[in-house]
Site-specific integrase
Amino acid sequence: MHLFFTDVQKVRKVGEIPGLDAVELSGLLAGWAPAVGTPIVLSESMTPVEPLCSWFRELGLDRRSVKTMRAYAYTVVMLLRFLLARGANLASATEADLQEFRRWRLDDAEQTIGEAAWDRDAAAIGCLYDFMVRQGIVERRPWRSAGRGRRSLSNGVGRDLRVRHMELEQYLFLRDVGFGGLAPGAGLDEGFRGWRPHRNRAACELALLTGMRIQEWSTVLLPELGLLDGGRPRAVELELGACAKFGHPRTVYVPADAVDVLDPYLLLERPEIVEKAQPTLRRRHRDLFVVSRLEADGAKVRGVLDGGMVNRSIREMDPRLRRIAVRETGDGLDPLALFVGTGGRMLTASGWDRVRWAAWNRMKAHADEESAGLVPRRCWVFHDLRHTFALRLLIYLTEVALDEYRRRRVPMSTLLDHMSGNPLLQVQRRLGHASPATTYRYIRYLKDPMRDVHEAFCSWTAAGGATYAEIARQLMTTRDGHATQG
């Protein structure tokens, strides 16, 4: 069996196809091409393997994310190969076959997995068999219910959310030494070379001060922050849509401090990156979404995509479309993405992972006796910044509630009753959690904390924000604006 993933752009790059001109090819792709990233499984004779191909097409039509479809594909292809080796197939598989597959994945495979990873595999297998039941291929799932709505195929063991947050000193060391390329004493490290410290530090700050997930903050576009054509807002309410987890829309407050820290990157590094990327962008012009104008106060864009003029809501643009969105400025093509890398392209998750590991190695190399305690045993991940945001905001809101109740002299029992319910709901909404249980239970009846984000992090930005800004201003002044590190 062979596993492939659809990519319309690669088909276009092939060029001419016998019997089809460019217009006919575009019409064919527009009418029949599956969603980008849809898995396709072919046999050794290069024929579609069913029911997998039909299931994947349904997932694509349901707008499942490319990441989810890819993970599902690897799981079910592995399952099918396992069953074929046992003389079975998807339709004839029994509960014993699937339990043997589970045991093999956990204990005997070349690369074994843990129970949490198996539960993700079980979700993929369950989704496939639900499709097969709807199609009449099987009568029911080939495993029994374990009661209370739980299926015996999954592990069924509840796990606490692993929350790893940062103290202020740890965060400053990560931001300035790891991502920012400074020396441990907050001075300029003349020996630092290689990558974009202003961009990476700004991304770190944006992640912390907004609580956004990596797929959210890394795909932000300039017009969403009001940063096109010299715009300079103090604070922004960002409407997340297609890039939010599961596509659940929510509003994110981007405080002024997070916008301010973007300045060194926008003034020093980004113009240089975009200028160097012009040959690549021009060469890929046909594959890009070339925006000609913004409409509806920046909420929509109009431009040329796949040879036709289209209008798109920025909030509903998925990461794939955001990565190819550029604007014709007269001086060249300018990516709409806030954070860009080599070639003018929006960094992918793997690109940011390389940045993170480079920061981690730098932190370990610069940790002396005084700062050794600031480097944990395991590498920081970007999601730890989200956990830090949540805990800092909850602590701040709890302190506000305590002060309010002390002022009113409300009995502690009443305070505890109120604290069992609602800042959870407030912070849950800021973080976009699907369930209050994910955020945990804290307090009730507090005002909307959107405007309190600045106060929650006021001491943090005051403690470490000025030093780096002064260095950036010095660079712009002494080197005439061409002094990016790396």
